[in-house]
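Appendix B. Raw example, untouched.
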Amino acid sequence: MFKGSGIAFSEVRQYIPGDDIRLIDWNVSARMNAPYIKLYVEEREMTVLLLVDMSASGRFGSMGQEKRELAAELAAVLAFSAIRNNDRVGLIIFTDKVERFVPAKKGKKHVLRVISEILSYEPLSPTPTWTGARFPGAHRPSTRGRVLGF
């Protein structure tokens, strides 16, 4: 999830002596008859939104661990990894509808709250699947971030 260069294309500008020649955009340079370089911006402070299915099917599992306990464990690993990268972490708990929303924030204390919400949450709806779940705002593009569902 956090591998890679973590950069996004920003703009193209004319080459200035001293610029890294590895950044030259040869396609643009050929069209403009002058060297141009690509500029990048490092992606920082992303929002990680965890979507956790708390329907009745989460009570199923092996003798050692239920699916919802495994979801809490996975959410904890992802959330702690995110705050280590200075990202914000939020939570949506759903069954056949969104039942709990925890806005994205930074910090270890907030991540512990998110994990506690997952472990202690009792669903309001007994519906066993999430096929009818609606996520308000999911159709609108927002700030850059990651959405992880399990």
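End of appendix B.
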